[in-house]
Structure formats: structure tokens, C-alpha cells
């Protein structure tokens, strides 16, 4: 990891989601855990690099091949729709920042939506290839 990407979220070989700093937005962060509930088993399967309690978002393997494995093992029948529901709920809030105690992370709205969109795209690509 280069110094340029030190806090960014790795989503592939030389691919990153910029981690936008929150400044003083921590106190007004929207609780995210209830929103993430529909995809919780899937998220747990992505937590392979460490444990979230230790490393926050860095505990999650978010490369397309990791997402494919987690999708296959998750048992969620319509993961695309579940991810879409999560995105709709995030968009439907007024918050500029979010906190997930389960993921041990604060997110800027922009970073969180890019992460959800990345995961959704990977899942759609898998489904379009006819893989489950």
C-alpha cells in the first residue's frame, strides 16, 4: 500500500475507494448497523483479513474475487436486491457520516455509497455470468 492510499479502501489490484476524512462529523453520524442487517451474513463472510473489532474496514476482503466467494457462501437468495435496499436506506437519510459498530468504522457518505456501489456491481457481474 502506498502512502497515497494509506487510509483508502482496497477493492482490487491498484483499485481504491478514497476514504474521505470526517473532520468533526463523528458526533452526528447515522447508525448504520440496522441498515446493514439484510446483508449481515454476507458482510461476515467478507471479514477475512482480520477482525473488524481490531482493524475496522481493513478487516474486510473487498476485491471482486472475495465478493464472489462470500456471495456463494452467504445463502442470501437475492443479494442484489438486499444490497439495493441497503443503498436506498443510506440515500434516504440526511446524514453526512455513518457509523457501524459491527464494522468498527465511521464512513463519510461519499465513501460509504462508493463502497456499496462497488459491492453491488461485483454481485451483478457475478449474476450476469450466471454464477450464484
Q: What's the quick description here?
A:
With 132 residues, the chain is of the alpha+beta class. The protein has one domain.
If you had to describe this structure to a student in words, what would you say it looks like?
The chain starts with 8 loop residues before the first strand and ends with a helix. The chain has one domain (about 25-130). It contains 6 helices and 5 strands. The longest helix has 20 residues, at about 110-130. With about 130 residues, it is an alpha+beta fold. Strands 3-4-5 form a 3-stranded mixed beta sheet. The protein has a two-stranded antiparallel ribbon with strand order 1-2. It has helices spanning about 35, 40-45, 50-55, 65-75, 80-90, 110-130, and strands at about 10, 15, 30, 95-100, 105-110.
List the topology elements:
Elements: E1 9-12, E2 15-17, E3 30-31, H1 33-36, H2 40-46, H3 52-55, H4 64-74, H5 79-91, E4 97-100, E5 105-108, H6 109-128
Parallel strand pairs: 3-4
Antiparallel strand pairs: 1-2, 4-5
What form results from the Cα inertia axes?
A: globular
**Between the first and last Cα atoms, what is the distance in angstroms?**
32 Å
Question: Sheet bearing the most strands, described?
Answer: 3 strands, mixed
How much helix, percentage-wise, in residues?
A: 40-55%
Low-confidence stretches: none
Mean pLDDT: 91
Q: Determine the number of helices (DSSP H or I, runs of at least 4 residues).
A: 6
Write the H/E string, N to C. Answer: EEEHHHHHEEH
What is the number of beta strands? 5
Number of domains as seen in the coordinates: 1
Could you give the order of strands across the largest sheet? 3-4-5
- The secondary structure category is alpha+beta
For the CA atoms, what is the radius of gyration? 14 Å
Strand content: 5-15%
Amino acid at each position: 500500500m502506498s502512502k497515497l492510499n494509506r487510509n483508502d479502501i482496497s477493492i482490487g489490484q491498484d483499485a481504491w475507494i478514497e476514504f474521505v476524512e470526517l473532520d468533526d462529523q463523528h458526533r452526528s453520524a447515522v447508525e448504520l448497523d440496522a441498515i446493514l442487517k439484510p446483508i449481515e451474513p454476507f458482510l461476515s463472510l467478507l471479514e477475512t483479513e482480520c477482525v473488524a473489532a481490531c482493524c475496522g474496514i481493513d478487516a474486510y476482503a473487498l476485491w471482486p474475487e472475495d465478493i464472489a466467494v462470500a456471495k456463494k457462501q452467504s445463502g442470501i437468495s437475492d443479494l442484489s436486491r438486499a444490497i439495493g435496499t441497503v443503498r436506498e436506506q443510506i440515500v434516504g437519510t440526511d446524514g453526512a457520516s455513518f457509523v457501524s459498530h459491527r464494522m468498527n468504522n465511521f464512513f463519510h457518505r461519499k465513501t460509504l455509497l462508493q463502497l456499496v456501489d462497488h459491492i453491488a456491481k461485483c454481485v451483478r457481474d457475478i449474476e450476469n455470468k450466471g454464477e450464484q
